[in-house]
Amino acid sequence: MGPNNNPPRLGDLLVGKGLLTQARLDEAIALQQSSGQRLGDILLSNGWVDPIEFYKVRDSQKVAPPRIGDLLISKGLITEMQLNDALQLQKKWGSRLGEILIAKGYISAFKFYQVLADVNSRAFVNLMKDRPDVALLSENDIEIYSELLVLPWKRIGEVTYVATANPSEKVLEFARSRFGEQVDFVVTSKFDILWELQINMGTVYSDNAVYQLAKKNPENSAQRVFATWQLFGGVMTFALILTALTLWPLNTVIALNFLVALFLFLVFGMRSILAWVGSRRGIDVKVGDYQLSRLEDKDLPIYSILVPMYKEAAVLPHIAQALRNMDYPLSKLDIKLILEEDDEETIAVARSLGLESTFEIIIVPPSWPKTKPKACNYALNFCRGEYVTIYDAEDRPEPDQLKKVAVAFSSLPEDVVCLQARLNYFNHSENWLARQFTLEYSLWFDFYLPALEALRIPIPLGGTSNHFRLSVLRRVGAWDPYNVTEDCDLGVRITQEGMHVGIINSTTYEEANTRFGNWIRQRSRWQKGYMQTYLVHMRHPWAFYKSVGHAGFWGFQFFVGGSVLGNLVLPFLFLMFLVYLFASISVVNLLTPIFPQYILYISLFNLLIGNGVLMYLSMVGAFKRHYYGLMPYALTVPAYWAMMAVASYKGLWQLINNPFHWEKTQHGLTKMMKNESSAQPAATSPQT
Amino acid sequence: MHIFNQAQEPRIFSRQNLLVFLLLLTGLMGFVFWQLSHQYASDLALLSWSKILTVFDAFEFRIENLSMLQPHMPLYLLIPFYYLPGEYGYMAPYLTSAFCAAILLALWNHDLKIHRYTAGQRALLILLVAAHPFFLWSMSGSAVHGLTLLVFYLFCIATIRLTKYADARAFLMLGLVLASFFFFDELAFFIFIAFFPMVQLIVPRRMLDESPMAVYLLVAVPLIVAVLTWLYLNDVFASNAYEFLENSRGTFRGSWLRAENIDWLRLFGGKFITPALLALGLILLAFPVSVWLVWRSRRHTKILAGIVILLVNVALAVGFASASSYLTHPIEILSLMVPGLMAVLILMPREYKSFHRAALYLMFVASIVGGWYAMHWKPTDEMRNWLAMWTTSEKLPPISATDEALGKWLKENPKVTLIDDNVAYRAIVARGNAKDLMVPFTKEFQLALRSENLTELNNLSTLSSIGRASSFKIEQVVVQNPVYSRYVESLASPEVDMLTRRHPKLYEKGIVKTKEKVDSGSETKNATVTEKVNLKNSEPVAVELVYDDHVNWRVWRFKYNEELHRNVVQCAP
After folding, report:
1. Under an 8 A CB cutoff, do B221 and A604 touch?
2. Which of B229, B231, B233 to mutate to test the interface with A (most CBs of A within 10 A)?
3. Nearest to A506, CA basis, from A589, A403, A383
4. What is the end-to-end Cα distance of chain B in Å, rounded?
5. Structure pTM?
6. Which of A280, A615, A629 is closest, CB to CB, to B210?
7. Is B222 on the interface with A (CB under 8 A)?
């Protein structure tokens, strides 16, 4: 304190701490008087004082800096009521005030960061107008840029300035480590940083999104559809079969018949076991209401949500609303709307909606392959959360899903790195196709997947609502951009790495396909993806077996492989059944030689008991969701199986001709969605 | 598989449970041996074992040769006994039944343990149940009926689970049990028909309100699939989907063919209400413990409903089975009360007061006494034999002395023989094996049926499905007396054998050769002869009656003409 009980002066404090000599101080004061600059600016620009030490001393001055909330009110940017609300939420959520104000839409990001600059006595920069010097940017630091929300901006004189939306010691340490002692920072909006990163580093991000897995782990990339030995083996096998058919036609057909019958028998057996295990009460209840009630918002981490979309302008308002309805602190949501650069319509709608600052638009530059996993890989670079998940544009997750996952992750062992929520459909009774789809999904997610988890068999993830520990996701190389069921592949890969996937007792409701053509396109992609996944992970069967174990290996064969093979052979089996039923005896007798005793017994078992049980399981599948009205439709499931066969052949054809083509599924076709309002009410302040 | 909180279930496969099972098995098998020492035999058991012998001793093994006229699963359980050395295989049905009954009691012991019954209490209850005559009769008196008791217990447990939780697993259990039941025992059909209307008393109201069709489908579809499966298999293997219902030999028809000879069916065949009410009366007589349980559970709606459903289910099943002339005696279905009441005890809270426990045990004792009285009411022949076994140390007479004698003779004269095992099964069991027996599923037998006059039966080549050829020379044929009518109440069907039906003179005149005139230009009378016989040069081929019991059976043996190297036989016109 000075002799007049005034707060000590900054210069005196610096001299007193030995950070500045008196001579330098006098020189700086002289410059201040002549130039009118602030003392701190002069000291920093000339490098006469260490910036970190300078700010420490400045902050230790008894003169407290203005509180940002008060400043915002004084500037008329927010109201007292809004500030009080934000302060209440701050206590509850544990987030910073600014994040809360922006998330609630009380203030735009642009205006807030301007005021933040004032609080830090720094300049504010609009990076869209005052672009950074690209020479200062480094590809090696792109992860740090997005993590710290910092971007090297300009060199003015001897001082290198970094633009940041999050002034902190870490930012300055980073700046010093890159640019030496003479550094300073300016404040900018986080959206400007993200925008600049996309513009300047888009190519790097894009390359990583496409090639990272292929470079780091080529054996697990579907960039190469067939391994050499698979191709060679496939051709040789085909040739051998043709030769055998020529030389020993009957015995060859009998042998093939036997293999198919045995395989289907084992597939049936496995599904029965899975259904039985999955029917156990409480098998996948990981998080109960009690645990949720004890959870405090301030303990929750930041959660990144990826929402990849392509030509889905119509459904964008719905997903935005669904995400707003999530029971999770808004300030801790890091939502990325991932749009392709050529999808101008959706981009325009996204901008016009005036979404809250919680939503960030990520524009994916064009590159090949143009797939959802590639887009997600791209956006992953900008994620800041501890956990990350994916939602599709038509999704409606249960509001407490994120909290349940957070609780589960905190209580489960570290090697559980992914949690799959259950998927189902909100338009489950719209038509016959939607009903079948719902029955199928209910059986899959409510019975099969929990059983796979219990039996330690690799879980083929669903296309959405997979929740990951972000650091692990990045470590395993994220999604394979070449695999059109990247989710299935990732689930297997995680298990190969010795980690685990769990199922969480929360549901995301999607839009069931209600049109045949659309369904075929979607299902053919899934089947193609399953084929890709199978081929990739069976490139080194022995290594795969050692990595996933006995149950995992055979479970993979019969669950993933079985799904594909079962659909492909179905038409032949149906045909033989129809011939037996309707053809004349002489025609039927033609089939008799290819069904010797033992094959006949297995085939009859598969036909009668196998199909009967699977039909019954379709019926029971809807049980956990109380969709009792759907159950009678399970009796018509053979027609649905026939459709799956058609889709499988389409997928097989595409695997050979166009393996990386992403058959886009059209959404927004359900009557339910059409009847709902199409636009989300605009946020109180537009995002800038 | 349990109705209780699965997180707390002790493991079912444990050393202790295994020990209990072995003890029970020893006890029950001891009883079976004691029973067999009296030479007691169940007709259905004999039929089952003979099926195993004929199918496994045949030149080519095919499962469908077990015939589609009876459920297969009880037969499959007998298969391991075929491979045991010696000729003790006839015990297989009884031992298998005892094995299943031991599993049932061991399972019950495990469930009682979870319900916190002490070891002493469990031992006493098991003893009381095992001593009930209905249990003993079912376990030892028929063919693998212990399996039916076990499956019915599982059915009751599944129903209890459905009542308690109505979750997916409950429906899966119930569906699995009902579907399996059909392949174990034809009674499944009657049990299901009686149970089906009562489903609405068990499932949650919400389910019924939302979709009653779903509820009934969940319960019915497994059994429907099982029935459709059987229809399809009949179509594939018997060329007629309804063969198992239309063929009078089918066990699915029960005793309808012998209805006139069976007391119960004579009185109540074709009726429903009276037998159902009588069944209730018999239940009260044979199981007064059910009254005690009803009284004890009067304040617990769900438990009371469970007991009432059990009683009504069993009684209605008796009614349905009588209406379709299936039953020989209501005990066939009433014996299911034993596992039913065992399941009810699982449903009910354990009796804590010693007075109530003592009363429970006393009521079980009363049930044992009542059961003996019930068994003496219009017993069948087999039941009479079984009851007599308890009061005499003498050996029981065989079901058919003539069949047994034939079997022993066939054993001493092991030749390639045409024989209908559907009527001569007792003889086959007495023989000890079915080697070189040409039974109806063999091509030789079918050729004999197709032939106008049993021609060309020697040197037949039988080409198996795997390409092996073998030659058989039929050396003799067993023929049943067509006018013999047997007053039996056995579960098997004592029809006249197919050979006699096809060739009515076969028993009387045997196989005699006659000259066949062949006029030039005209076709031979016997179009099935593979080569024309120059009858001018042929010599009569003799047949010899080598066995005649003067009651039921004859055996004709062929004598071949070695010069002709073929055997041309012809029935007398």
Report:
1. no
2. B229
3. A403
4. 66
5. 0.84
6. A629
7. yes
**pLDDT in the model for residue A61:** 67
Scored b (16 or more CB within 10 A) or e, A399-415 reads ebbbbbbbbbbeebeee
* A626 contacts in chain B (CB < 8 Å): 206-207, 210
B51 CB-side CA count, 13 A: 29
pLDDT digits (tens, 9 = 90+) for B29-75: 999 999 999 888 888 899 999 999 999 998 888 888 888 888 999 99
* DSSP strand pairing (A150-156 vs A159-164): antiparallel
CB atoms within 10 A of CB B270: 12
Give the residue from A119, A118, A130 showing the smallest Cα distance to A156.
A130
Show Cβ contacts of residue B102 under 8 Å, excluding neighbours closer than 6 positions.
B21, B24, B25, B28
For B465, the closest of A597, A601, A628 (CB atoms) is: A597
Q: What are phi and psi of B319, to 5 degrees?
A: -60, -50
Contacts of A401 (CB under 8 A, 6+ apart): A326, A421, A465, A504, A506, A507, A508
pLDDT digits (tens, 9 = 90+) for B509-548: 776 444 444 434 444 444 333 333 333 333 335 578 899 9
Phi and psi angles of residue B512, each rounded to the nearest 5 degrees, phi first? -120, 150
- Strands (E) in B27-102, as ranges, are none
Supply the DSSP symbol for A268.
Answer: H
Flag if A624 and B232 touch (Cβ within 8 Å): no
DSSP element (H, E) containing A412: none
Q: What is the pLDDT of residue B401?
A: 87
Q: Is pLDDT above 80 for A506?
A: yes
Task: Kindly give the interhelix angle for B337-347 and B133-140, rounded to the nearest 10 degrees.
Answer: 120
**B527 at the A interface (CB within 8 A)?**
no
Structure tokens at B272: 């429903």
Q: Which of B169, B211, B218 sits opposite A279 (nearest CB)?
A: B169
Q: Which of A26-35, A305-314, A559-568, B282-291 has the lowest average pLDDT? A: A26-35
List, for residues A192-225, the tens digit of each pLDDT value.
898 898 888 888 888 889 998 888 888 888 888 8
Cβ atoms of B381 and B43 closer than 8 Å: no
Kindly report the nearest CA distance between residue A260 and chain B, in angstroms.
20
- Dist. CA B313–CA B322, nearest whole Å: 14
The minimum CA-CA distance between B224 and chain A, rounded to whole Å, is 9
Helix (H, G, I), strand (E, B) or coil at B488: coil
Q: For Cα atoms A444, A448, A454, give the angle at the middle one, nearest 5 degrees.
A: 150
Chain B residues near residue A619 by CB distance under 8 angstroms = 214, 217-218, 221
At B454, the pLDDT band (50, 70, 90 cuts) reads low
Q: Is A281 within 8 Å of chain B by CB?
A: yes
Contact with chain B for residue A579, Cβ under 8 A: no
Residue A623 has a pLDDT of 87
User: Do residues B469 and B463 touch, judged by C-beta distance below 8 A?
Assistant: yes
Is any Cβ of chain B less than 8 angstroms from the Cβ of A629? yes
CA distance A62 to A183: 25
CB contact set of A153 (below 8 Å; sequence gap of 6+) = A125, A127, A132, A133, A136, A161, A162, A163, A186, A188
Sign of the alpha-carbon torsion through A197, A199, A202, A203: negative
At B57, list the tokens. 């001793």
Q: Is A191 on the interface with B (CB under 8 A)?
A: no
Cβ-count burial B446-479 (b if 16+ within 10 Å, e if not): ebbbebebbbbbbebebeeeeeeeeebebbbbbb
Tell me what ipTM this predicted complex has. Answer: 0.85
**Cβ distance B51 to B421 under 8 Å?**
yes
- Does residue A258 sit at the B interface (CB-CB below 8 Å)? no
